[in-house]
Structures are given as C-alpha cells and as structure tokens.
Amino acid sequence: MTVTIKDVAKAASVAPSTVSRVISDSPRISDRTKDKVREAMKQLGYHPNFNARSLANQTTKTIGVIMPNSANKTFQNPFFPEVIRGISTKAHQLEYGLYLSTGQSDEEIFEEVQHMVQGKRVDGIILLYSKVNDKVMKYLHEQNFPFTLIGRPYDETVRGVSYVNNDNFKAAKTVTEYLLLLGHKRIAFVGGNLDYVVTIDHMEGYRRALNNAGIEVCDDYIVFHEELQEGGQEAVIDLMSLSERPTALIVADDIMTFGVMRMLSEMEVNVPDDISIISFNNVMISELSAPPMTTVDINIYSLGYEAANLLIDKILHPNIEARKILIPHKMIKRQTCRRLVESAKKTV
Amino acid sequence: MTVTIKDVAKAASVAPSTVSRVISDSPRISDRTKDKVREAMKQLGYHPNFNARSLANQTTKTIGVIMPNSANKTFQNPFFPEVIRGISTKAHQLEYGLYLSTGQSDEEIFEEVQHMVQGKRVDGIILLYSKVNDKVMKYLHEQNFPFTLIGRPYDETVRGVSYVNNDNFKAAKTVTEYLLLLGHKRIAFVGGNLDYVVTIDHMEGYRRALNNAGIEVCDDYIVFHEELQEGGQEAVIDLMSLSERPTALIVADDIMTFGVMRMLSEMEVNVPDDISIISFNNVMISELSAPPMTTVDINIYSLGYEAANLLIDKILHPNIEARKILIPHKMIKRQTCRRLVESAKKTV
DNA sequence: AAAGTATGTGAAACCCTTTACAATAGAACG
DNA sequence: CGTTCTATTGTAAAGGGTTTCACATACTTT
C-alpha cells in the first residue's frame, strides 16, 4: 500500500538504515549513495511515517495547546486566535505541530492532558490561561513535563515554572493613575473571573493606585463577571444603580467593554461625557467601537510567540532553568476617557 | 522508564496480547482476567503509548484542521474560535483529537497538508474555507483522502466532496429583498475576498434579487475587500464618494461591518437614518455594536459540529458516499436597517 | 468414552524508523 | 606484501503496541 523505507531501500539497493541516514542527511553516507537514494524516494513518492518516527525517536515534534474550559463564551474572544497565531508562527518556524485540547469542562481537560502526557502524544504543553489552584498545572509540574504558562502561576514561589506574562498589576495601576490624573475619584473596577490570576493582578494594581492616592477603596465599585458581554452588561446595571455612580470604569477585557458600552448607550449614559472607560487587551476590533475605546495593548501575538519559543527551548534543553518573560504593554489612548471638570458631576 | 504493556502483562502474569485485549475490551477475555489486568494497570499507572498504537493500528484518531492563510487579519475573526468549538465538541465526543495547521502562506499550508496526509499524521482533514481553484482541495480529492469542506467546492460538478455550508446565495438574496421591501433601491454590496466561494455566492444572490426586482445592477455599488476592518473602511470611502450614494449596504462579515460603521460615524453619516446596513455571520459581539447590527445568523458552531461529524463518518466508513449538509441561516433584525421614506432621500 | 465446540491465552509476526554495533573494502603505512 | 585505519554500508534490535494463528482448557453432545 504505502511506500516505506524498505521499498526505497530495495529500489536503491541499499539497506533501510542507509535510507534513514540519507533522510537525516548523515555525513557518513557518500554523496553518490545519497543521490541514488533520493532519486528512489522521489520515484516512489516516499514520505516518512510520522508515527513510526515518533515511536523510534521518542519525540513527536508537536506541542499541545490547552484552551480554557470552552463551556462559556470566553472562547469566542478574539484573544485566542491571536495567541494561537503567535504560537503557530514560532512553532512553524521550528517545525513543530500544534495539537489542540478539545475538552469542555475542567475535568475533561485534565484527563486530556494526562493522555497527552502519558501517551507521549506531545513533547510539551502551553497553557493558554493561568488559574488559581490549577490542577492541570500542578500535574504537569509534578510530572516534570515541559510546559509554559501564558500568564503566571498564582503561587510564584513554585519553582521551575516558565511563563510569559504581561505586568498586569502595573498596567492596572497605571490605568487607574491615569484616570486619577484626569480628575476621577469614583473609579469602578469590572473584573473577569476571579479564578484567573490576571483578574487578581488587575485588582491589586487598581487597589494600590487608589491607596497611593489616598482614596478609600469602595467594595461596591468592584464587581466581577465571568461572561463577557452579559457580564459587562450586568456590571453596568449594578454600578449604575448605586447612589453614587462611578465616573470611570476599568474593564477587564475589550469584549466586555463592548457589552458595557452597549448597556450604557441603552441607559443613555454617554461615553466619555458621562463616564470614562478604559480596558485591556486591544483586540483587533477594539478600535472599531463607538467611540473607539481606550485600552491597554498587551501584545497578544507576542505572548503566544514567546510562549512557544520558551517551550521549545525547554523541550530541546530539558535542564535549562525556568524563565519568565514579561511582554511590554502599552496604553492606547482613544476616545473613551475624558478629564473630569471639577464642579461638574457634584450633583449626582 | 515508562510503563509498557509488557510490564502490565508481567505484573498480572498474562501475555501482552491479553493486556491488549483487555484494553480494547475484547469479549474473548474472561471477566476475572480483565479485572486482574485492570488492577495491574492501575497499580503501575499504565497509559497506552499513542504512537505505538497509531503505528500498529494505522489510525491516529486525529483530525487535521486547516485554517486559511493567516497572513492577514481574517484570522482574528471570532468566526474561527466558534467553528473550532463546534468541531472540537464533536471530535471530543467521538474521542478524536485536533491537529492544527500552522502555515502562513498558501504554499506552506499546502506542504503541511501533504505531510499530514502522507505521513499519516491525521485520519482526515477539515478545510475551514472554500476557495476558488484550491490546490489543497484538489490534492486531497486526488489522493482520495477523507476530508470535508466548510463552505462548498467552487465547481460543484466535482463528485465525491463532502461539505457543510449555508445557503449563502439564498441568504444574500433574501437580505437584498428585505432591503428592497424597505424601499431601498440604491443598495451596495461590500464583499470579502473574491477568491472565496462564499463571496461569489453572496454576490450572485444580491444580483438575482436586484434583477428580479427589475433594478439594474450598478458596478460602482459592488466592492470587494480582503481585510476586515480596513477593508470595511475603504469600502465606505469609495461608496460615499459616489455622486449617488447608496442608501443601504450589504456587508460580507460582521467584523467588516464594525469597520464600516466606524467610518460612517467619522463621516457623520447616521446608521440607520442615513444608511441601512445588513451583514452576515452574527458573531457574538455583533449585538454589541452601536447600534446593534442586523445580520444573518449562519450558525457557525453547527457548521463546525456537522463538519466533524461528516468527516468522522467518512473516516469510519470509507465507502460511504459524499454528503452535503446545509445549515439553516436566520436573519436577526436589530437596529441598522430602516424603511426608506419615499420623498426623503431624493435630494442627494 | 470419543468427538465436537466454545472460550481463554500465549507466541510470534508486524507496523516503520532509528541506532548501536558489525562488517567490508579500499587506502595508507611500514 | 601484510597490517592498521578510515570511510561507508549493512545487520539486528529496540521502540510500544496490535493482531493472527494456534493451542490448551473446559464443557457439551452423542
């Protein structure tokens, strides 16, 4: 049926091992023989069998990409195609393939990871999320299996975890300071799922900035929501029902901001005249909102690219020590923030 | 090092073949033996080696997913995570894994597909796009390798291609008719890349509706753009520069519509008062535009789900004949279309 | 008691490559 | 001319399973 190395060997009247060596371009084979074998390979249309190769080599040249639980809509966030594009680019350069997780629940995902690892289906794994107390991460760490995190481990004292992250604490702090400088005092924080480390870092940055400015953190101004659009919308309802409405919002994610802005517009609250908004990620469409949103570009593509780089490095040099990469972020000022004029909003 | 089937066999004092039979739950093994072997597997923490299995079985339980050329931004369209979610769900149900293409250019992708197929890395392939004269499709067809298309082959006379598609012709026709009923006569069409079959189908539907209504199709009203946001923006510039501006726009994709609406808002052209818009896909955020957009829901998730279903069927029953599945679409009326009042726009 | 039939198990071949080791031939050397 | 190198190629085992075939039981049947 299929053309194997033996067929090529026969056709070129050499031993299978010779063919194998020609494939890996071993210097121990004479040029004459190489030519002869290559000719035969072309004639017969030979392609190496991937599985046999992996088996003999104990290496798959494949990296496993673990997406978060896809039950909720988080998944539709353009964040994912973009990280994957980054991962994909680097992987392709180094001739690695990508194997995607398909599990829907945390439990399913965990099982899948076990299979990937124990079944030697991939050489390493990239986790596209960082959760607090993540079973998957714990497992990979225990198994001493090559992996990198996008984000950071919740407990940074855990040694030996490579990750690539933004300085989310700093980004959130800066963003809050920016709003403070614009004269805002009642700044609310609309976070994502609290199980994710990024949410915690954002919140800490926000708190710190407020503390530094001597402003008391008001619990009513801090809300969390898992779902992207719906979450954004519910957050707005909660916040706008307060007797003292916030004058500015820090929102965890651009997509959530779309939800927020939609709801605000239904309530006829004008952005940025009545309320300022700043969010995170700068996905492609965030410049297309009405008005275009001010957000923090976190360089999603690089996050993926560097994660792949780190991982493959680890695969190739297992004894290399863990590295942490910080991808720079950058505030992109567009049109959802405005300076608060002193007297103005005194009348609530 | 790793626990193999032989270790299990020894521990349970049976032959390796017996262990193998237990794994595949063969009816020829007594329950007592099965229990004994399973106990041993658990004790030793045995997991079957995937590559060895694939090699012996000649089957990988993996399906290859080919994304379009990721050089341009098309990729960031939330369409992709959503189809993949559909594919992923079905694949997971039937215990198939997903292997993703990483090539950036058409040429790279083609090579990759060749490797996947010849190297027996996957059991079947799903093409996430349908292009005119697609080399990849041609190749898969020639090789008689199991694959399904999302979209449809340009040349439908090619026998034996399974695909899942929307009736894009009909959707575009309906949408055009809808605008006609609202009193629009100057309806423009902003299409995607003309290499994609979907673009052609949309255009044909549009033309047909106009013809049926006895309205001459004006070439100036038909524009195409590859890029999503930029494309949308450029299209608007072109159309709004015409002496007779269109009163309604049919846009190929929701993301593009975001670009269109952004540009329109910069020009201070009001949607829907000055111009009506209707587009396709209904991705998650399309309800979050300002105003929320009227669009055609094409059920992206099902597209993926059914494609996986079709493919796996084909893999399992190679002699089954090719099937075509049409996923129903549905117009979602939101707020970007309005009735044209007779007298109104006469003054251009 | 002999023959026939399930049922359970083991040995060995096979899937395709890689690789350690062996073998051969020709070149260089004394 | 015999010996030692060196360059090149071959042989066989390993990598971890699956599958076929044949054999050994135990149980019916006549």
Write the layout of secondary structure elements.
2 copies of one chain form a homodimer.
Chain A: H1 5-11, H2 16-23, H3 31-44, H4 50-57, E1 62-66, H5 79-93, E2 97-100, H6 106-118, E3 124-127, H7 135-143, E4 147-150, E5 162-166, H8 168-181, E6 187-191, H9 197-212, E7 222-224, H10 229-240, E8 248-251, H11 254-266, E9 276-281, E10 294-297, H12 300-316, E11 324-327, E12 330-332
Parallel strand pairs in A: 1-2, 1-3, 3-4, 4-5, 5-11, 6-7, 6-8, 8-9, 9-10
Antiparallel strand pairs in A: 10-12
Chain A binds a DNA duplex (30 and 30 nucleotides) through residues 2, 4-6, 14-21, 23-24, 28-30, 33, 48-49, 51-58, 120.
Protein name (chains A, B): LacI family transcriptional regulator
Pfam families (chains A, B): LacI, Peripla_BP_3
InterPro entries (chains A, B): HTH_LacI, LacI/GalR-like_sensor, Lambda_DNA-bd_dom_sf, Peripla_BP_I
Written account of the structure:
The structure is a homodimer of 348-residue chains. The first copy, chain A, has 348 residues and is α/β, with parallel strands linked by helices. Chain A is built from twelve helices and twelve strands. In chain A, strands 2-1-3-4-5-11 form a six-stranded parallel beta sheet, sandwiched between helices. In chain A, strands 7-6-8-9-10-12 form a six-stranded mixed beta sheet, sandwiched between helices. Chain A is elongated, with a radius of gyration of 26 Å. The relative contact order of chain A is 0.12. The interface between A and B is large, with 59 and 59 residues. The structure holds a DNA duplex (30 and 30 nucleotides).
